[in-house]
Amino acid sequence: MFVFLPGFRNFLGNADTRFLLGLIGLIVGISSGLTSLALNFGLHHFSTFFSRYSDHIVMIIIPAIGIFLTVILLKYLIKDFGSHGVPDVIYAISLKGGKLRFRSFYSKLLGSLITISTGGSAGPEAPVAVSGAAIGSNFARFLKTNETIRIAVTGAGVAGAIAAIFNAPITGIVFTMEVIIGEWTSLFMLPVAISSVAGTVISRMFNGNQIPFEHRLFSVNIYDILASLGLAILCAVSSILFIRILKKTTSVLAKYFKNDLIKSLAGGAMVGIIAFMFPYVRGEGYDFIREIISGKYQAEFSIVLLIVIFKIIATSLTLGSGGAGGVFAPSLVIGSTTGLLFFSIISNLVPQLHINDSSLFSLVGMSGVISGTLHAPLTGIFLIIEITNGYDAILPLLLVSFLTSTIVKQFEKHSIYHHELIKKDFLHRPRTDGRILTEIKPMELLEKDLITIEPNLLLKEIIPVIQKSTRNYFPVVDKKSGHFLGMVYFHDLKDLIFNNELLNTLIVEEVMHTDLSTVSLSDNLIDILKKFDTSNSWSLPVVENGKFRGLISKATMLDLYRKELKVQTDY
Amino acid sequence: MKVNKKIAFKKYLSQKEVAQLLDIPEVTIQRWEHQGKIPFKVIRKNIYFKTTDILNWAKSHNLPVKPLDSLSVERKTTQYSIRKAVEMGNIYYDIEGNDIFSVFSNALGCLSFLTANDKEMLLNELLYREELTSTGVGKGVALPHTRKTFELKLKKPHIPIFFLKNPIDFHAMDGIPVFVLIMLFTTTVQDHLKLLSKIGFLLQNEEFIKILRERNVHRNLISKISEIEKASGHF
């Protein structure tokens, strides 16, 4: 079979781009769908094994052991440690042309299997999304496609995985476009949609077409819609708390525990204690959501409030101490409990108000918190519609999702996935200044058609050079060593060269500028532009290991900048 | 820069040709290939760009494209030496006339590469130019010129030299009567400026002036120009 592979690759190499994208999307969708099923299957079986002992005191240390093993596995065995996963994918798509390591395919998957099944509070969606992305990326690399296709296919992997894990094809597409790729272009839509469909089909073939979170039917009235304005505020508070506590916990844990293994044990132990008091914060929490949505779970206002807070803390501890997993499922748990909390507040304050039951508000709350933490209202809306079959709740869903994400953006400028990337300057969406400046390499701007002169020449002797050159500046280079010494500007010479005495007495060394800032070809353009600003000049000499290589000028940069912008624009 | 003249009729372009067509560094074209931003075909592991694909792509991305035929005529300016231009223009002796008008009309009458209409137009223009300031640059030499010569659509610059039978007053700065006209027929602004500055350089050479004064024969004069041009190196 492998004999045909090179031929297959050649065939694909010259195939129409859209056909190629569709075909790869299909293959990637099927693979990532299977991956996602595998994780689900594994989680289900491991969790039932541990849940038998859920009341036992030994459960306090089980999460610690789980996170400890995860760290050992990821850091020492697979050597793929750090970050939650999804930011890695966004970074790869934004700056590395979709390039992901092959080990990302299984590392987070295995890690999250251990972390979540032992009771760590985290979600399996992000690991599955990372695996899907790694499948797509490495398949594209195998086919030696160009970067645009690789990015599209990496996105397709995410879509297929998310679609398969939730049995939710639209959510797969919307999540990929809104959060991962960040732009809605037709070229990307095709493979993403096909992969999403393929992933869903795979999921239905094995699990049947089941709705993960079934709920009762309800009809939404005007009071519900008015009440959802209040819910939006509460969801925003939960989201902001979640984002901030996660950030804070991660930095505090990293500050106090220099050793990753000790950190994992300490963090895990705290998770264990919380989970022992509130078993509902354990794992990915799907069962708990099911109970809330179906209305089976009812509790005191204070208990619900504590669950919201401790779920946030447990998730932050799990992820901050090195556990593998994502924030997607925890956001759903936090959202549904926030909805429940809101319902109990309203029904206590104004019992005569004819609002719907808690089920509706937990449902809308899930969408609200997803929209808030991920800054992705469309993902929240479509996810809830698909996983709960809850189109009847569309009006409060729309309202709460968009309101929450707008409110959260006022306080937290970047989503839970993006803030780390933004801080490291790793997120450059297409057609932004940063993206263009990181894509253009200084090599592309290098102007070499300059005539160099020697420092000990008389001014008279460089007149022919000036006449011959099309430039107004002349780099001075030492003849023996080839080292760059300075620049002579025609501008300075204007007053001198009409004076015969000066022409015969002054030498180049006396009129050259030496206090110049120089740049190197390994600098990035953002730094080079800063040097332009600070030195207030229009062109800077490029010097590599003391040797003069050429010149970079602002005029050339503007020209190429515009062309790059045009090429990145899809008219 | 050597470019295939038939680029307009080529079905496929090389990377270098695409770079020239779009006026973009080759390194950038290479990066665009890797990133999949520019359409290309791979034929036996070599990269080719289909001309129509590239033109459509550039149009759809609003990128400026150089006219295809301009690629073949790149940098033909400034390649002409004065020697060649003088050979094109030829040297004429004993031009009659007692004032600027008659001298000009007689001189233009000698030129076979001009039509009657051209001659009339140029005569007016040259006289008009002379009214602004004298083109007598001193030492008995005048450089009558007008930018209207661009309209003649000459393929190469011509510099005819006319020796006058009787030196006439040209209102030159040094007051010396003019005995020789060096007329400039150029094709572009660049040519015009370049050749003008070169002639200026020639006229600084005392030996050259001496040879002009002797009204030397055609061959000697040309070889002297050639000699000075070569010696100065940067021409």
Can you offer a commentary on this structure?
The complex is a heterodimer of chains A (571) and B (235). Chain A is mostly helical and 571 residues long. In chain A, 66% of the residues lie in helices and 4% in strands. Chain A has helices at 5-13, 17-51, 62-77, 86-95, 104-117, 125-142, 147-166, 169-181, 186-207, 222-256, 260-277, 286-294, 301-320, 328-349, 358-374, 377-388, 394-411, 418-423, 433-439, 442-445, 459-468, 490-493, 500-505, 508-511, 525-535, 554-568, and strands at residues 473-477, 484-489, 539-544, 547-553. Chain A has a two-stranded antiparallel ribbon. In chain A, strands 3-4 form a two-stranded antiparallel ribbon. In chain A, a hairpin with a 6-residue loop joins strand 1 (473-477) and strand 2. Mean pLDDT of chain B is 80; it is low at 1-6 and 73-78. In chain B, helix 1 (15-22) crosses helix 2, helix 4 runs antiparallel to helix 9 (218-232) and helix 5 (100-110) runs antiparallel to helix 6. Chain B has a 5-stranded mixed beta sheet with strand order 4-7-8-6-5. A 3-stranded antiparallel beta sheet of chain B has the order 1-3-2. In chain B, a hairpin with a 2-residue loop joins strand 2 and strand 3 (46-50). The chains are: A mainly alpha (571), B alpha/beta (235).
Mean pLDDT of chain B: 80
Record field, number of beta strands of chain A? 4
Class from helix and strand fractions of chain A = mainly alpha
Strand fraction of chain A equals under 5%
Coarse shape of chain B:
elongated
Cα gyration radius of chain B (Å): 24 Å
Low-confidence stretches of chain B: 1-6, 73-78
Which value, in Å, is the CA radius of gyration of chain A? 30 Å
Distance between the termini of chain A: 42 Å
Provide mean pLDDT of chain A, rounded: 87
Greatest interface and its participating residue counts: A-B, 25 and 21 residues
Largest sheet of chain A: 2 strands, antiparallel
> How many DSSP H or I helices of chain A?
26
